[in-house]
Batch of 2 targets.
Target 1
Amino acid sequence: MAAKKIRFWRNPWTIGVGSILIASIITSGFKAVVSQVSPLAALKWFGHGIVAILMFGIPIYVVLLVVLLVIIALDVATRPLQTPVAVSQPDYLSYTTTTYKRWTLRWGYRERLDPRRYEIRDVRPVCSCDCELGPYHSLPIPALECPRCGKRYPVFSPEDADNAAKVIEHDIRHETYKTRPETLKGLVA
Ligand SMILES: [Zn+2]
């Protein structure tokens, strides 16, 4: 009986059919779990497996091996392709406001990919009440006016914006932005 059993498992036909069967069980089970089909479909797949085991008299160690392979396959398939790497951002990105001459300024940053660094963008004056300023059409000297509280400020020229950006860059390079009291309110804790 034992010899017959060994002959059965060494038979090329058994090995061939067995391999296909095991592969198909793994594949369908894999698909069922990955695509998260209904419990009924999973049960059906499980039923097919049981029928196959009974029909071919597959020994328990083969069944256990198949189960183990399925678990390994699922573990590999559901593992994220790449562990996300936490990209640390520089502290100064929270430095977005300061005072310059008679203006309170605000700005943002634009990321440059190569080399990875940030550039200052959209430097503009805001009101001391924190509202963005609009133009005030007065003659002969135009001005900026706060649409919220009506406070007026000198016009902020593109040259002023360039110079302010240079001061901001200097603050960042020398890390003085960390201690300047007027900038602290712009820092996120
Ligand atoms: Zn205002």
Target 2
Amino acid sequence: MTVDTHMPYDEALARFEPVLGLETHVELGTASKMFCGCKTTFGAPPNTQVCPTCLAFPGSLPTANAVAIESTIRIGLALNCSIAEWCRFARKNYFYPDMPKNYQISQYDEPLCFDGYLDVEVDGRTVRVEIERVHLEEDTGKSTHVGGATGRIQGADYSIVDYNRAGIPLVEIVTKPVEGTESLAPDVAKAYVTELRETLRSLGVSDVRMEEGSLRCDVNVSLMPRGASEWGTRTETKNVNSLRSVERAVRSEIERQAAILADGGRIIQETRHFHEDTGVTTPGRSKEEAQDYRYFPEPDLVPIAPDPAWVATLKEALPELPSVRRKRLQAEWGVSDLDMQAMHNADAFDLVEATVAAGAPAADARKWWMGELARRANESGVALAGLPITPAQIARVTELVASGALNDKLAREVLEGVLAGEGSPDEVVERRGLRIVNDEGELSAIVDQVIAGNADAADKVRSGKIAAAGALVGGVMKASRGKADAARARELILEKLGVSE
Ligand SMILES: [Zn+2]
């Protein structure tokens, strides 16, 4: 594999303006496939979810999945698209061993949804990404090439194919060219895919797992020399399968294309592959034009003509979209943009919201999730939501702190116990004996004992050096193993030593 020269990013940006385009494929989470009744369970044994229709046996006929059409319209509505009053499926003709029909049922010049937009926040700035189209098609099967070093067909001993995925409803969301993002192009691409994923998740139409391929992103990049008015030739980096890779792929393509153009070369219109390990792209195949696919209207399916009244009902019933939700939560919680961003990055909104719903004050809920729990999640390399603790349990801990039964230090120990599987917060308090010493007699006895053992400090306090009381409070906390109420202990110490503040 030869690695192309890359121009340093800043230099590339000084000489060229990047133009982005993003094509995202989303597998819908329908119970059955797009044109037959086969199940769509991920990870089933190969070729167990197939039938004559999705294997394209002669005489089998497709029937469109109504839920898939409804989901696609809901996606379109959430992306502010117009919904076609009448449109058709089209055959896209090409040969792929994992596509039994030798054509894909897709949509061509009559997409179900078109002309929308999605606003994304980058660096405190709102960037509107315009959506060209949202159309519905079917997924292909999956080929596995065995014996080669790279998993590619070249050098493989043989290939096997699994048709379970063939015919799963797939929605393709295509942006219009995104201009003017300048050096933020990689961040805009990442923010767009992130926002799109959250929007799709809020609609409940897909499990949007990039690592399992239910959300796949192709990234188009072209460069325009400064002062030029025509776009350059674009490349399409296929199936970039993580948010971080979307950002890295755009950056790498900008640097690579800039080096070629600066050297007087020209960009080849082609698909490229992004390599997670090296962070660079390598060539795939030269890119076909739409005409190469010989599209024609699918003769085995009736046109789709969604009733505008039904579409209006779907629009009415859309859930709260992520951007609207973020604004609402920010107002309810009264937090800064920066804190919202941190919670967003940590995927903490659901957790904090559920903790507040379970009775915790927002500031406490946020403090625990973004502080102690974020630290522990980070240490054990899991997502916040993957920690073995529930929002209701956090709410209970905040309640125990508010009632004076726990202080912050003890609360942290309780969380540690819950995370270690020792039971509910109350059980951990009980088992570890963590309740604060709020029995006045018990506390008084500890204070006496500490004063007796620290005569020097006690004398200093008696002579008016009240700062020295800190050492005594520390002694009480130590003697009570952190379970004393520090403020009350201080009061008692001063009282017993006959001084007042
Ligand atoms: Zn089938």
